[in-house]
Amino acid sequence: MNEKIVLVLLLAARTFSTFSTDLSEFFEKKHCDPKCTFDSRNLSSKTIDLFPKTCSTVCSDLQIGEDCDLTEAQLTSAFLNMKRLIGNIFVVSTKFRSGSFLAGLESIECNNFDVMWVLNNQMLEIGLTNLTSISCVGFQVTENKKLVRLNMPNLKNITMPEFPKPNDKNTKLKFHSESSDFCITIEEMENFITANVINVDETSGKYCAPVTTNEKNLCMSPSLCQKVFGDVEVGPNTNLDSIKMIEIIFGSLIINGTNVTDFNFLENLKYVASFTADKSGIIVENNPNLQNISFPKLKRVRASNPATIVFDKNNKYLSLDVDSCNGLKNALGITTDWSPTIDGNDCCKQ
Ligand SMILES: *[C@@H]1O[C@H](CO)[C@@H](O)[C@H](O)[C@H]1NC(C)=O
Ligand SMILES: *[C@@H]1O[C@H](CO)[C@@H](O)[C@H](O)[C@H]1NC(C)=O
Ligand SMILES: *[C@@H]1O[C@H](CO)[C@@H](O)[C@H](O)[C@H]1NC(C)=O
Ligand SMILES: *[C@@H]1O[C@H](CO)[C@@H](O)[C@H](O)[C@H]1NC(C)=O
Ligand SMILES: *[C@@H]1O[C@H](CO)[C@@H](O)[C@H](O)[C@H]1NC(C)=O
Ligand SMILES: *[C@@H]1O[C@H](CO)[C@@H](O)[C@H](O)[C@H]1NC(C)=O
């Protein structure tokens, strides 16, 4: 989309709602200290003196935008003591190379808006290295041309806002960059995908090359252990006992040409997160004896293909079993129409 149009839409959406009483009501409910409230929104040389620099909890709907004429050092010093933000952050169209001026920030408690970092075309990393908790309906990092890393290694406590709207069901993390070097670390993905109420389907990119020495229980496929990087293929000659310890796969799971009747051999598998272009997260094919398609502990699957879980050419009766298909769909919190598919049809079309 054209940059200017994106910007106009974003700003219009915010302008109409943030000046409503919503935000002041929210600050009241959150017991904001007026001395620690910054309501100018736009931070620039005109407003920086009003920023409550000594407060560790700040209430603000903070906007750092095109008109921000401050240096990264000035911002760093303004935010030095801020650990908890009640409200929101919107970093848009800035020239900054890093967002690390907010590196001390530990938690964000949003009202109804997504945290957004957009159109920062010089920015290489978000750099919120101490950010641990967000309670927001969304966190969007998009349309930043040169972004190569999130550098948000500690964000793991992801919850819904305290006062969500009725239609808000989960927190959507939408991380994307136009740079082909953009990557997400496996530690970041593990933090995201294991959070309770999360949707990472719209995050795109690839994994950064993993540093195995960082992680005790990580191994590279075809080695198998608790956390496997790369695709896991279960075929006719696979020793199913070797699969038992896997909890998370940073890649796809392929079960192809076996005699298995159920997935009880995947007794610890909880998460599958693949980033390979167009590849499904779980592919189950040519298993004529398969009868039960529920996974003992599987909680979430993400893939860069909307058909996240695909069953093909297994026991032909499976494709008639609408209840099992929907059971699997519900167990994984899938709300789209596409997945799982059995012999090319999604659950409700069987
Ligand atoms: C705040 O910033 C936005 C874009 O960054 C700009 O459109 C708006 O005019 C600014 N508002 C004020 C009061 O300066
Ligand atoms: C981040 O947290 C660590 C550990 O609590 C602390 O030492 C460091 O100063 C914090 N970083 C910033 C930029 O505040
Ligand atoms: C997680 O975030 C929520 C909401 O911000 C907060 O109340 C809770 O204390 C946090 N938990 C941890 C372990 O940081
Ligand atoms: C699967 O079952 C068939 C028929 O019983 C048998 O011939 C084949 O060897 C089995 N394959 C495996 C991998 O156990
Ligand atoms: C499954 O095995 C068949 C036969 O070996 C092969 O043609 C097919 O590509 C495999 N499917 C996947 C998804 O690997
Ligand atoms: C299918 O497998 C699940 C767990 O793996 C189990 O809880 C369930 O009872 C099985 N269903 C049938 C009909 O055997």
From TrEMBL:
Signal sequence interval, chain numbering: 1-20
A Pfam family this chain is assigned to: Recep_L_domain
Residues covered by the Receptor L-domain domain: 55-147, 225-322
Keyword Signal recorded: yes
Keywords for the protein's UniProt record, in alphabetical order: Receptor, Signal
Source superkingdom: Eukaryota
PANTHER family reported for this sequence: RECEPTOR L-DOMAIN DOMAIN-CONTAINING PROTEIN, RECEPTOR PROTEIN-TYROSINE KINASE
Name of this protein: Receptor L-domain domain-containing protein
